[in-house]
Design a protein that fits this description.
The protein is an all-alpha fold. It has helices spanning 4-38, 42-47, 59-99, 106-115, 125-135, 141-164, 169-177, 182-193, 195-211, 214-219, 228-238, 243-276.
């Protein structure tokens, strides 16, 4: 007969496994329902939203593309890619200067950069609109790219610096003794050692830029420049009689993020665990 002291750990593992499986279902079910709904007809969705489709109909994806989802997807990819590159490079250079180079006033500079985290985007909307209009950037890709970069550099710098600060400085000094310049040391020595936190920063920035709604709604007015979140909201209001095309657009918007997270999840978890823990 199994003693109670040996039985409790087994029960604990079973409860934990059941809880995690329930969590997986809670996360995956909305995604599965969204994909299944995109394959139904309008009458099937209205008649029984939770039933399986009677036939595999993918025509809703073609209608979603015809209604502008393809343009919205291109705009989101362009804005996200450029804002991610600019944010990551600026933050990595800032973290490198604050941790690997003995520059004066490094602590006040760090406090000013991190202080940007305290600024809520909604508070700055009016002056930002005036600024973008005066620069001639209103209703252009650059309005979003500049704003996404400006509002994410403080957090990304803080994240990369937290990881970079504990890397051995001896490696940099050895590279300098071998004749490497500061720029070569940054690209060939420090950046390869920071791969996990760089991947984590890239994924977080992609998630932010891809799903951002407020700036895209305020600073973009043309259909040809709208990104996916605002474009899908517009599509939802216009296609109230074509729900499958709305679900198809949402599926198209979700696929790149799912693929990105699957490809980078190993570095993402490692980078956050090591960066935040330091």
């Amino acid at each position: 007969m199994t003693s109670p002291t040996r039985l409790w750990p087994i029960i604990g593992r079973l409860v934990l496994t059941g809880f995690l499986l329930g969590l997986v279902i809670v996360v995956l079910y909305p995604l599965l329902w969204m994909v299944i709904s995109s394959m139904k007809s309008n009458s099937e969705i209205l008649g029984n939203p939770f039933a399986w489709p009677t036939s595999l109909d993918l025509s809703s994806y073609g209608r979603a593309i015809d209604k502008g989802v393809g343009t919205y997807l291109f705009n989101s990819v362009l804005v996200t890619a450029l804002s991610v590159v600019s944010t990551t490079l600026l933050s990595a250079w800032a973290a490198f200067g604050l941790t690997r180079i003995n520059i004066p006033f490094s602590k006040p500079i760090l406090m000013i950069i991190v202080g940007g985290l305290m600024l809520a985007p909604t508070v700055a909307l009016v002056p930002l609109v005036k600024l973008m209009q005066s620069w001639g950037l209103y209703d252009t890709y650059w309005a979003l790219i500049i704003l996404y970069t400006a509002f994410r550099v403080p957090f990304t710098t803080f994240l990369i610096r937290s990881y970079m600060i504990d890397l051995p400085i001896d490696v940099d000094e050895a590279a300098v003794l071998d004749g490497a310049t500061r720029r070569q040391t940054f690209w060939r020595v420090t950046m390869p050692m920071c791969t996990p936190i760089i991947v984590s920063a890239v994924i977080l920035q992609v998630l932010f830029a891809w799903n951002e709604f407020l700036f895209a709604l305020i600073f973009i007015g043309s259909d040809t420049v709208k990104t996916l979140p605002v474009g899908l909201a517009t599509l939802s209001s216009r296609a109230v009689t074509d729900f499958p095309s709305v679900f198809a657009g949402m599926t198209i918007a979700a696929v790149p993020m799912i693929v990105l997270f699957i490809l980078g999840q190993r570095y993402f978890v490692r980078g956050l665990a090591e960066g935040v823990g330091r």
